[in-house]
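pasting for ref
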Amino acid sequence: MRISTVWAQQRAINDILDRQASMATTQQQLSSGKRILNASDDPVAAAQVLQLQHVDAANQQYQRNIDSASNRLGMEQSSLDQVTGILQRVRTLALQGTNGTQTPADRTAAATELRQLFAQLVQVANGKDARGDSLFAGNATNTTPFVQGSGFGISYAGDDGQRMVAAAPGMQVATGDPGREVFMDIPAGNGRFEVQADSANTGSLVVGSNSVTDNSAYTGGDYTVTFTAPDQWQAEDASGTVVATGSYTGQGAVAFAGMQIQLDGTAATGDTLHVQAGTAQSVFTSIGNLIGAFENMPPGTASSNTVNRQIEGIDQSMQRVLDVQARVGARLDTLNQQKTSEGDLGVKYQGAISDLQDVDMASAIGQLNLQQVALQAAQQTYVKVQGMSLFDFLK
């Protein structure tokens, strides 16, 4: 076999270039810390790395969503705490106002403070989150949800939607509650029915606490209780049918249809009580009615009945806020648990990507040293071979 001098030299040069390229690749792997520099280096591992990176990126986005949702729910929780404080003070003032020792000046002072509390409540209800979106406007986040009209009339300008955030694949968590549910549609009375003393009553009947005592007998209808004599009463349903009768001794309870109504004071013949089920009243209306009672009604039976009904409204409002707070707390707990889980997954994803993509430093350094020795040997061999010629022997 005849080997030309040019062919031998070219092959030696190609070998040197190949070794230089291999050593350059190893140097690049060491400097970048990555074993896979191009997809062609390991097509299967490169595809797996790409898929894991997509999954990890989605996982990180879920964690950002959770942070944003947690911040918003935390602000809602803080606002609801303020609402609770306001309502507790309103209830204290209302109870003080039912005390017979209160003077007109005391009631006026209470009404003045109630006005301030009313304004504060409207301000909290119209609160915004860190992005400037209304907390209690539903999906209408750019709207001021509670608009005050004449007097203490408040209208709701938001909607009944709930903003949702994706916390995990297939997992949506609400980041707020519509203001209508929190502040407006509050069950009146004891939450199931309300009792109002007729404004035309001439006796001194004051309606106290009332409740459902027998769920099996309670139908939820509307009734009218009429005192046919100071010590006798009858209850009629909405069609005018008498459904119950009884006696009243000046203090005690009227009970029928699974309901019990506590009364105090003297009844006059013809005095009536109106029992209504399923009615609702906003917390703003309850406070506004209290202010009206303290400012415009003298102490007495009518004022006591009005104040007692508004205290029931405040109690129901506080219960509604408590229920919403419980839901907010449950969402925050769910988000915290999910973030911990996704954080653990993120560590596993990064570990898997590292196993596939990162270079083994010790192995790569050893390989680089071997490549360097091989390159030096190839270079020295070339130097010796390229100087050899047959003409050196023709002397």
